[in-house]
UniProtKB/TrEMBL annotation:
Source domain of life: Bacteria
Coiled coil: 215-242
Protein name in UniProt: phosphoenolpyruvate--protein phosphotransferase
UniProt-annotated location(s): Cytoplasm
Lineage: Bacteria, Pseudomonadati, Pseudomonadota, Alphaproteobacteria, Sphingomonadales
Assigned keywords, A-Z: Coiled coil, Cytoplasm, Kinase, Magnesium, Metal-binding, Phosphotransferase system, Sugar transport, Transferase, Transport
SUPFAM superfamilies found in the cross-reference section: Enzyme I of the PEP:sugar phosphotransferase system HPr-binding (sub)domain (SSF47831), GAF domain-like (SSF55781), Phosphoenolpyruvate/pyruvate domain (SSF51621), Phosphohistidine domain (SSF52009)
Ranges of residues in domain GAF: 28-173
SMART domains: GAF
GO biological process: phosphoenolpyruvate-dependent sugar phosphotransferase system
NAD keyword on record: no
Reactions catalysed according to its record: L-histidyl-[protein] + phosphoenolpyruvate = N(pros)-phospho-L-histidyl-[protein] + pyruvate
Pfam family, one: PEP-utilizers_C
Amino acid sequence: MPPSQQIATIAAREILTRLHDVMASRSNAQSKLDQVVQIISTALLSDVCSIYLLRDGVLELFATYGLKQEAVHVTRLSLGQGLVGTIARDMAILNLSEATSHPDFVHNPETGEEFFHSFAGVPIVRREQAVGVLAVQSAESRRFADIEVEALQTVAMVLAELIFSAGLIDENSLASSGSKDQGSLRYNGLKLVEGMGRGYAVFHQPRVTIEFTVAEDVEVERQRLNAAFARMREQIEHMAQEAEFFGNSNDHREVLATYRMFAYDEGWRRRIDEAIDSGLTAEAAIERVQQHNRMRMREIGDPILADRLHDLEDLSNRLLRLVSGQLGTAARLGLHDDAILIARNMGPAELLEYDRRRLKGIVLEEGSLTSHVTIVAKAIGIPVLGRVKEIHQGVREGDLLLVDSNQGAVFIRPTPEIEEAFATRFALSRKRRAEFAAMRDLPAITRDNHRIELMINAGLRDDVAALEATGADGIGLFRTEFEFLVSSTLPRRERQLRLYRDILEAAGDRPVIFRTVDIGNDKTLPYINNSDETVEENPALGWRAIRLALEKKALLKVQARALIEGAAGKTLYVMFPMIAEPWEYEQARAVFEKQNAWLAKHDKPRAKRIYYGSMLEVPSLAETLDILLPKLDFLSIGTNDLIQFFFAADRAYPKLAERYDWLSPALLRFLSRIIDQANAAGCKVGICGEMGGRTLTAMALIGLGLKRLSITPVAIGPIKAMIRSLDRDAFAPFIRELVASGASNIGDQLELWAKKHGVVIN
């Protein structure tokens, strides 16, 4: 460490020690602050030290050493007024050799500051908000050295905690002034799950609360930091396995490279070490450097550099959670009020940990229409707004939020007028849902008397209640992996058996199609690891679903036994995911038939009949349907994965969202051939996926000959209304001719046809 840095570090440590003693004393708050400014001025060899604190929305001079004492509690500056107001408003640092030369300089004659030329000030920050300003001045015209300003920042950070401990500023005053400053905001995003929700902001990964800022033993703090850095670097090295974060794109590889660069950046680590040397705890040292970086972000005009600093902010938060041991999500703390969850992204298992009674909406900085967290949110009826950039910068924990994903918007700290308009739209939405509910017992029959099976997708025990609520014909896709995702250990056969039995009993006479466990990709399980240690560059195309199940046949055997026994005396429908070639289906079916034979031999309870089906998600399977269809009882087209494979477009990657086109002529031609081939073979064919849950695309599929849709419960009403207003025989020639022509604006033409013929598509 350079000698000048050592001097600044010793000065900062001395100030922190003396500040701690002062604030722990029994003297009153004003006396404490009077001592604090004298300590800082003496240690930094300045002529003046002053503390301004935010009070009732303005900055008030609370204590000074060097200015006139009669100015204390008299001099008041609004945010943005003068040098002090500018520092607080912009969360910036000022270091001036001649204060009067700055365009924001304002002379306060009552202070007697005209005798001082140099000025340096830093914001006193608490929870990313300026609560005051710490400033030093000198009669000599000079810039304070960078190391002196850094020492000032370190002191300001500890001072923030001490000020609050002394009760000089209360949280409510701070919150109200912040709200007044930022006001109501609107952020736009992409509708991932339709709906509206009102609640208070909760961060999925809560901000770490720093309990102690002053270190008792510097070496112990350094060891804690070293251990956290080692764990963080280990996590970064394994991040490529986390499909939610990386996907398959070059952009994600660049992000990984940036993360690695920062994780191993000795300059970043050295700055944290120096902050520890000054007397801070490991947590406070990380936060101290983080504050400095945030201030740099505000000054940077280059968006690329700003993005890199955002990456560093993300890593700093990770490091802070590791060193503090505060690793849990908000789900573990519990939701106490109606909540809107804020996250960069999240996995389906994480979502399932939250109390659905309290969770009213989700806002993601990333997210895609067909990511598994979106699918789960849709299944449980939680509105989701995705790709809301920089939402973390505009919202604070506890802010009132209104999510209207139908409009693609989230309102932060809404005005009464916005709340009233939201309430009106929400009432209309409930009225529309009531209209759909009134159709519950009506069959899904087109105007020309074609019966369409409407089934729901499910994955949890509670989801079965949606059968009665919607009047659906059954469960066309029960995702059995949800039981695995919410468990910390591999669910035993008895537990699986109870679940499957309960689902079938609750469904009554209505069919339930169980999809065998589909894990891998973004549905990884900590207790099932890839035997090959090679990192998958393309997890969606990798070791998952039926491939994993056939390799780990014990997993599939246990599930087969549980399903067959759980369906004792009933009809069992089993479907295998991600079949690419007929032999995979044959091997999976053989596992079930062997287990069924064993149960029969040992006179165990079992299903009275088993129907076997395959999902068509991999395009290659379409080329061998002539071989596969005679062996199937039913076929289900899984459009979510199929379309991303078909277009070579990662469904989780935002830049490719426009390439994920449900009404592309190429896709509709492909699906038309599959539907025609299955119908000709007498094999029931259906769709389970996002494509079937939208009125316009569902209308196109029905026109192409599809007779079964398995969709989310909330989509049953709108789809049934569309079906009952559609004349399929009149529409079928139109859609087939449109698909054959290769028109590029199929969606527009379908909307015009629906409007002309009175089809309900909204």
